[in-house]
Amino acid sequence: MLQIQNLNYSIGERDLLKQVHWTIHPGRRIALVGANGAGKTTLLRILCGEIEIADKVITKPREYSIGYLPQEESAEARGTVLQAAMEGHEEILNLEAEIEAIHEQLEAQSETDQSLLVKLGQLEERFNLLGGYELESLTKKILMGLGFGTDDFSKSVSTLSGGWRMRVHLARLLLQQPDLLLMDEPTNHLDLPSLEWLENYLKNFLGSIIIVTHDRFFIDRLAQEIVEIQMGRLTHYAGNYHFFERKKALDQEQLIKRYEEQKEERERLEKFINRFRYKATKAVQVQSRIKRLEKMETIEIPPRQKTIHFRIKADVQSYKEVLTVDNLWFRYTEPWVLKEISLRMYRGEKTALVGINGAGKTTFTRLISKELAPQKGDLVLGQRVHTGYYAQHQIDVLNLQSTIFEEVASTAAPSFQPKLRDILGLFQFSNDDVQKRIGVLSGGEKARVSLAKILLSPSNFLIMDEPTNHLDAASRASLEKALMEYDGTLLLISHDRYFLDKLVNRVIEIKDGRLKEYSGSYSHYLEKREAEASEKIPDIPTEKKTAAVNGQRKTKQQKQQEAAARQEISKERKRLTGIIEKSELRLEILSEQKNNLEQRLADPQTYSQTELFLQLQKEYDTVLRELPEVETVWENAQLELEELLDKLQV
User: Where are the alpha helices (DSSP H) in 5-89?
Assistant: First the structure.
């Protein structure tokens, strides 16, 4: 357990952290949230020791270990990918080198040196105790989960891009299994498959985790509590991101109400004091009110983020059938990127297009927008369909001599023209900014201009590739709301899964060049896909064996041996099936207990009853410890049963 007591930290005259108190309990997964510049990264750097503070502010056990994944790479790793990932296990690597050296000495000797054999035994015992024999296979498993292939293990880390070097750093931290893992924007360098793997891995991580990330879906899937930094202070919320959003909005309303009530009370007291300050008969009452004013707690209202609400409406409605694709094939050279693609899209649908990087998502959107043409098959847009296509490369077609206002106004639908300046504020262009010329803008600013042009155009079929990349949280929320109310057809590619989950009612996955459709939200897609991946184990084949082997009749002894073998296999299968069924039942009970306890711990009234809170917390910790143990038993039994079934089919 780690404790922070009365932490204060300033940069210049600005108080970044004020009287921070925080206890980080073992095994907790916490999301640290707050506006840009609120102090999230600073707090992580203080916790890991990068920023020094006064003694006794942070207390922790002597052997307590902390691992820190920064936003950007702090130091370049050495050696191969595999070596760099195992770098944190210095004692194991040193033991391995010693063991190898002794083996070489023994091979070179004509007579065996007994003292070397004794030393070798001691080293191997220590190596085994530290998990040395499993380290390499575990390292490879983690690296593959983070997106590395087996061919990458021997590559030099120095040849990798910054994003892939950060994945190596992350693998090293996961292998070290620190008591507290600090992660600053871990999702920035990962694609969706790696993200999903990391989520599942961290759910079973034994230590505590503090995550700083803009990926709200990642927080929702992992966090057991949210800690918000605002105006230098921490506010704790027991629950996931959805709970935090609702509770924060409620708290904000109550705070504003208290502020208004206090303001009225303060004005009433001041009015009385000013009126009777010099009247002797009222001196006691005046002094009483002055003291009340002095003791009155100052309520601070956090500055509200400016949000602009606008509605995207298609000027002309398309016919019901928006897109028809029949047996489409496409390739650049070899092999086929897309094959046997057939699809129907209808007016008003909001669809997510998902798949690993390089699966063909952008290629498919470029085919729809007519930038590319298929080699085989048909792709037809419906009548009165007007597409608007947002992609990163669209910044290249902006007029560099135009101002931001002129460029967006040139394609905006008539309904948007009167409030164009206000809407541009959503895209972080306010006041005189709208008069800047496109040529002087950064790449991110140009991308936001392109996004504004597409959204405000008369299109009724929007195709959007990573539209949230250059938007802050407030702008992203405004865009979400606008797209939710959009009455046209929407096709989205995005790594922001929370964004997708709020918007889409259909998911199309591209895998191995083909499309697979799932109805429902992004969360439903994940559930269905996970269910498909863990299909029920097939029954043991019961096909009748022929009476002859190699053309000969089986002997009585052969038949008896086969019967005994079948009986043994049947007993083993029954045993494993029993373990699996019991584990699944226990997992179901534990999951239900976990959900119930989280709901009770999320209730503010629980915290006013100390004994109840401690009892619930104790029960919750017990459930969290037992869950991974039961999952391991279930997983091992499944693997054994699969091996048994494989033997039967050999």
Answer: 40-48, 81-85
Q: Rounded CA gap, 379 and 382, in Å?
A: 10
Kind plus residue range of the DSSP H or E element containing 228: strand 225-230
Are residues 347 and 319 in contact, defined by beta-carbon separation less than 8 angstroms?
yes
CA proximity to 434, closest of 406, 474, 464 = 406
Q: Report d(CA 47, CA 35) in Å as an integer.
A: 19
For residue 396, CA distances in Å to 59, 238, 390, 403, 443 come to 54, 46, 12, 15, 10
Say whether 369 sits in a helix, a strand or coil: coil
The pair of structure tokens assigned to 155 is 């590559």
Task: Tell me how far apart the alpha carbons of residues 518 and 508 are, in angstroms, rounded to a whole number.
Answer: 6
pLDDT tens string 305-360: 655 566 777 778 889 999 999 999 999 887 899 999 999 999 999 999 998 877 88
Residue 624 in 3-state DSSP? helix
Strand, coil or helix: 546: coil
Average predicted confidence (pLDDT) for the chain: 81
Whether the Cβ atoms of residue 31 and residue 226 lie closer than 8 Å to each other: yes
| One-letter-per-residue 3-state SS of 568-614 | HHHHHHHHHHHHHHHHHHHHHHHHHHHHHHHHHHCCHHHHHCHHHHH
Q: Is the pLDDT of residue 181 over 50?
A: yes
Beta strands in 34-134 (DSSP E): 58-59, 66-69
Residue 209 φ/ψ, nearest 5 degrees: -135, 135
Q: 308: closest CA among 228, 428, 390, 213?
A: 428
Both structure tokens of 81: 């990918």
- Report the candidate in 8, 25, 26 with the shortest Cα–Cα distance to residue 17: 8
Task: List residues bridging with 233 in a β-sheet.
Answer: 230
Contacts of 148 (CB under 8 A, 6+ apart): 81, 164, 167
Nearest to 405 by CA among 452, 475, 444: 452
pLDDT in tens, 415-442: 777 778 877 877 778 778 888 898 888 7
Long-range residue pairs from 394-400, CB within 8 A, at least 24 positions apart, any chain: 394/450, 394/454, 395/443, 395/446, 395/447, 395/449, 395/450, 398/438, 398/446, 398/449, 398/450, 399/438, 400/437, 400/438, 400/439
Q: Is 465 helix (H, G, I), strand (E, B) or coil?
A: strand
Coil/strand/helix, residue 565: helix
First to last CA, the chain: 52
Which of 343, 498, 456 lies closest to 31 in space, CA to CA?
Answer: 498
- Give pTM, 2 decimals: 0.61
Query: What one-character DSSP code corresponds to residue 148?
Result: -
3-state DSSP of 397-449 = HCCCCCEHHHHHHCCCCHHHHHHHHHHHHHCCCCHHHHHCEHHHCCHHHHHHH
Q: Which two tokens stand for residue 350?
A: 């909001």
Coil, strand or helix: which one is 156?
strand
Using alpha carbons, select from 431, 456, 446 the residue that is nearest to residue 399.
446
Q: What is the DSSP string of 259-305?
A: HHHHHHHHHHHHHHHHHHTT-GGGHHHHHHHHHHHHHSPPPPPPPPP
Phi and psi at 156, nearest 5°, equal -75, 135
Strands 58-59 and 2-11: antiparallel
